């Protein structure tokens, strides 16, 4: 029986540009502790035109779990800016709260 990841990969073979499927695959890779592949997938989504705003937040959360807090702060700052430019004040607010919870750099 195919795993969830295998099912997503099969659907992606038919729809390689599907943003939600690409995001779902990155989330599955995170669950499997394949963090570098997951973060690479999220980085691709952040580079899309337009960037996929949830990818910034999920990357930041994953980076914090990996104790890569400075990278997480960078992802959040970029995500907040992108969310605002796309008119997504809810996402910008959530990322701003998470950024504030991380404290200032170097703490």
From TrEMBL:
Residues 80-107 are annotated as: Disordered. It comes from Pseudobythopirellula maris. This is Tetratricopeptide repeat protein. InterPro entries: TPR-like_helical_dom_sf.
């Amino acid at each position: 029986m195919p795993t969830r990841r295998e099912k997503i990969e099969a659907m992606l073979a038919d729809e390689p540009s599907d943003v939600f499927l690409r995001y779902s695959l990155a989330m599955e890779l995170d669950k499997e502790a394949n963090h570098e592949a997951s973060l690479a997938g999220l980085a691709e989504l952040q580079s899309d035109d337009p960037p996929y705003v949830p990818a910034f937040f999920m990357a930041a959360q994953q980076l914090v779990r990996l104790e890569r807090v400075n990278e997480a702060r960078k992802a959040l700052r970029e995500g907040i800016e992108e969310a605002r430019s796309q008119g997504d004040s809810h996402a910008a607010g959530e990322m701003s709260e998470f950024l504030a919870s991380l404290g200032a750099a170097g703490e």
